[in-house]
Design goal:
By secondary structure, this protein is α/β, with parallel strands linked by helices. It has nine helices and 18 strands. It is globular and about 60 Å long. The two termini are 20 Å apart.
């Protein structure tokens, strides 16, 4: 979710075409004005932040591109989410010709430079987690000779997004793309045994570049199984759409905090800490327009530096180890763990 401080970054993108992928998922092909074309170039796996007005509410949500940069279009895919105000609104009302306010592409869930060009791309997608994975697959197949393996889990066959598109890609690349589908309606939820069986079929798992996206429990199962199989952490890349709520212990540890000092735009604000709030939430409650976007710990937009006191991140898929060692945190995922915390947005 982007903040008002980035309002100027948004531009109107017209919906060129609406594709109904399943009964509860649509893809929007967006027209980028010529004057904005450079700003909206993207890497496979990144996302757009949409700014929409629903019943008088100014809302922002992040949606991954399902198209690939090599294709001559920009497409996002949105699955209906129970209780999801924006995703339901898009699925119910999106039509060609309507303009959506969108910020330029962001995100760090993209193909890494310097990796083996012969190692396989191994992807694990659960449900709508296929969206950024699809962008990665299309890019690798079009721009390299690498093999691609996809483990794709869904509740049922009629909920599979991109079923026809994946079948077409497999037909065009019979020696390079392997897709293994898992349906909960047949065998229950994905287990470590199923993931291990898939990984064991990879000739050189140690050389594989693994990308994981889907519901939290699915991602945890995949990540732990890959770790047990010896896949180095540096070769596992995760994209989270949602992050689990902090445990009671983590919230209790944060209860010792009394004061938060925030430096933003050369202004220092002191505010009392309210139990359970992240540093980003505290900044907002203090009336500050702190930068943010995905709010799942994936993009790095909300990063700031803790210069006094300490904080604990609930999730971090954006910062490197050396950055964390220097005091940088993702404020959307950080709870204070000292009586006073001073955080600086630079």
């Amino acid at each position: 979710m982007a903040d008002d401080s980035t309002t100027d970054a948004f531009a109107p993108l017209r919906i060129k075409r609406v594709v109904h992928e399943t009964s509860d998922a649509v893809s929007l092909v967006l027209d980028v004005p010529e004057e904005c074309s450079r700003r909206y170039r993207y890497e496979a796996g990144q996302y757009l932040t949409l700014r929409v007005d629903v019943d008088g509410q100014d809302l922002r949500r992040c949606y991954s591109m399902s198209s690939a940069p090599v294709e001559d279009e920009l497409r996002i895919t949105v699955k209906r989410d129970p209780g999801g105000v924006v995703s339901n609104w898009i699925n119910d009302t999106a039509v060609a010709g309507v303009e959506l306010q969108a910020a330029p592409p962001e995100g760090r869930f993209f193909l890494r430079e310097g990796l083996s060009e012969t190692g396989e791309l191994v992807a694990f997608a659960g449900g709508s987690g296929i969206t950024p994975i699809m962008s990665l697959i299309r890019t690798v197949l079009a721009g390299s000779d690498r093999r691609v393996r996809l483990f794709y889990a869904n509740r049922a066959r009629d909920s599979v997004i991109f079923s026809e598109a994946l079948a077409h890609l497999a037909e065009l690349n019979p020696d390079r793309l392997v897709v293994e589908n898992h349906y909960d309606e047949d065998g229950g939820v994905v287990t470590p045994v199923a993931i291990k069986s898939f990984v064991d079929a990879i000739a050189r798992a140690g050389d594989a570049d693994c990308y994981i996206c889907g519901p939290g429990p699915f991602m945890e199962t995949v990540e732990s199984t890959l770790c047990a199989a010896g896949v180095p952490p540096g070769q596992m890349h995760l994209e989270r759409f949602k992050v689990a709520a902090p445990s009671a212990q983590v919230t209790e540890d944060a209860a010792i905090c009394e004061e938060i000092v925030i430096e933003l735009d050369r202004t220092v604000t002191e505010t009392a800490y309210r139990r359970g709030e992240t540093l980003l939430q505290t900044a907002r409650m203090a009336g500050l327009k702190a930068p943010s976007s995905c709010e799942t710990g994936s993009c790095g937009t909300c990063m700031a530096r803790v210069v006094e006191g300490s904080a604990r991140m609930l999730n971090n898929d954006a910062l490197e180890e050396d950055e964390v060692a220097e005091g940088w945190v993702l404020t959307c995922q950080s709870l204070p763990t000292s009586r006073k915390v001073r955080v600086v947005y630079e």
